[in-house]
Amino acid sequence: MSTDRTIDTASATGWLREFARIIGENAQYLTDLDAAVGDADHGINMDRGMKAVIAALDDAAPADLPALFKKVGMTLVSSVGGASGPLYGTLFLRMAPAFGADAADPAEFAKALRAGVDGVVARGRAEAGDKTMFDALAPALDAFDGALAAGKDLASALTDASAAAEKGRDGTESMVARKGRASYLGQRSVGHIDPGATSSAMLIAAAATAFGASG
Ligand code: ADP
Ligand code: MG
């Protein structure tokens, strides 16, 4: 087994930049998904938020992982008006204290991500099958943990996590929305992929790309 790459502020910043890039490229698509089940702003919200994050990171590079994730979370909470701002903001804010001042190993990164997703649940009360971002994130975390436990390195564990997130995202199509704006549609939300699950799958795909690039 190869030695896993450590996760430091530079590589984590690379992850966030890659996420911002994917969101920017897919902003219209995410907004179109939200037009079907919500108010047609998810791509606009996420793109505004991630552009603000990149501007904040360009402005002053955080010293360590807790400072980085705190800044990202605060920026999202303050720059995004929709439900996704506080939810993604909470995810990153809850990741922050899970790190120490030093670079993290894959298991610590997995723990931090789980703390972040636990924060999303604490805030939004979503359960599995409610047709939200949780339906992409929860299977991704389980796949990530499983892959690491099986001895896989960071890159291949994140590839597994990304595949699981995409499967979870696709699984939201047949679900009835029970949280957020889409829940107002009830049964009519069936047949549409959840926008937040789609952006969350992009978050995990960005991690696989950023941390797996040369791992
Ligand atoms: P808004 O619904 O305020 O317009 P967005 O369109 O930016 O915000 O985000 C919508 C996404 O937020 C949904 O597709 C869903 O994945 C996610 N979401 C909404 N409410 C919740 C919740 N309570 N828990 C988890 N995720 C949620
Ligand atoms: Mg919306």
UniProtKB/TrEMBL annotation:
What Pfam families does the entry give? Dak2
Identify the EC number(s). 2.7.1.121
Q: What is this protein called?
A: Phosphoenolpyruvate-dihydroxyacetone phosphotransferase, ADP-binding subunit DhaL
Lineage of this protein's species?
Answer: Bacteria, Bacillati, Actinomycetota, Actinomycetes, Mycobacteriales
Q: Which SMART domains match?
A: Dak2 (SM01120)
Q: What is its EC class?
A: transferase
Keyword Nucleotide-binding listed: no
Q: Which residues form the DhaL domain?
A: 10-209
Tree of life domain: Bacteria
Q: Which organism is it from?
A: Mycolicibacterium hippocampi
The membrane-spanning stretches of this chain are: none
**This protein's GO CC annotations:** cytosol
Q: Which UniProt keywords apply?
A: Kinase, Pyruvate, Transferase
GO BP terms: glycerol catabolic process
Among the GO molecular function terms of this UniProt record, one is: glycerone kinase activity
